[in-house]
Design goal:
CATH topology of the largest domain: D-Maltodextrin-Binding Protein, domain 2
Helix content: 40-55%
Structural class: alpha/beta
Number of helices: 12
CATH superfamily of the largest domain: Periplasmic binding protein-like II
Low-confidence stretches: 1-36
Strand order of the largest sheet: 2-1-3-10-4-11
Mean pLDDT: 88
Number of strands: 11
CATH architecture of the largest domain: 3-Layer(aba) Sandwich
Number of domains: 2
Radius of gyration: 26 Å
Length: about 325
């Protein structure tokens, strides 16, 4: 072979080797970079963590049937994480520690404002309006002579938590509409709806208060904390339903299943799937879920703008 032939052969070999190395590098890069559809989980790919707002003393047990249904339709192990308070749930959602969340409407907006990447798919439906939502009740002891919210002036007033939609945000709106400022009453934070109703029914620590209507009419009596006849409702406001929200970072197929199966789920669907329900769950979930999206909560964003002195509205 001539020197020229050897030189040409060497060049061809070098080009081939370069191509092989380039292809190998591409393959290694592709293998180490997961596709966008692969998604991420709070714990692992076989588990879904459900975050829950601590609305009631028995929240976890009440909502267990829905968690069981999520496990059934996704084929995943489901772990329910009930946060110690509203703020903790917000932080858990921002930190990616939960895959799906049963927010209150207000905590959803707060979490979004802080960078949480979640999309609502459904919310509980009120039996009287057939809309995704429920009522915030202004309550007083049954024996009280208070007839309206204006009568809350000078009283010790129970709220749930500063991050609660029906236990604080809407009450602030109702109080402002009645002409009361924050200096006109003494706030008491009960932490949960049933405790707020209980303290108000007792009439000592709180002479008036606020709680979600389902608590006033059912949960407290069922838990033995108070009797519904011990309370009187003096006003109420309709509140956008608490969204069941799905993490945007989950795999596309998991998000699709959750949206398809959860956004319109009913008690009948749960029973057909072999999920055991309880009277407490059926009371809360009487009409199941209806689809909602982020825009459904725009009215709540607008409400926040009318309450500049509510610090928890900042950033919304």
């Amino acid at each position: 072979m001539s020197l020229a032939s050897v030189s040409r052969a060497a060049k061809v070999s070098a080009i081939a080797l370069t191509a092989v190395l380039a292809l190998s590098a591409c393959g290694a890069s592709a293998a180490s970079t997961p596709s966008a559809d692969a998604g991420t989980f709070a714990k692992d790919s076989s588990t879904l963590i459900i975050g829950m707002v601590p609305d009631e003393s028995s929240a976890t047990s009440t909502w267990q049937p829905l968690a069981d249904y999520v496990a059934k339709v996704t084929g995943k192990k489901v772990e329910v994480k009930e946060s110690s308070n509203y703020a903790a749930l917000i932080e858990a959602s921002v930190a990616g520690q939960v895959d799906v969340v049963s927010f209150s409407a207000f905590t959803y907006l707060q979490a979004k404002a802080k960078g949480a990447e979640f999309t609502p798919v459904g919310a509980t439906v009120d039996a009287s309006t057939h809309k995704p939502g429920y009522y915030s009740d202004a309550i007083v002891p049954a024996s009280s002579n208070i007839k309206d919210i204006a009568g809350f002036k000078g009283k010790k007033v129970c709220f749930v938590n500063e991050n609660s939609t029906s236990g604080y945000l809407f009450p602030q709106y109702l109080l402002k509409k009645a002409g009361l400022s924050k200096t006109d009453y003494t706030p008491v934070f009960a932490g949960k709806h049933d405790v707020s109703a209980q303290k108000t029914a007792q009439g000592t620590e709180c002479e008036a208060g606020f709680a979600q209507e389902t608590t006033v009419t059912s949960t407290g009596p069922a838990a033995g904390l108070f009797k519904s006849e011990d309370l009187k409702v003096v006003e109420k406001a309709f509140v956008p339903g608490p969204p069941f929200a799905v993490a945007d970072t989950l795999p596309a197929d998991v998000k699709s299943v959750l949206k398809d199966k959860i956004s319109t789920v009913t008690i009948a669907d749960l029973k057909t799937a072999g999920i055991a329900t309880t009277p407490a769950f059926e009371k809360f979930f009487a009409e199941g879920y209806k689809p909602v999206d982020d825009a459904y909560y725009n009215d709540l964003r607008d409400l926040c703008k009318t309450l500049p002195d509510v610090k928890t509205c900042e950033g919304i």
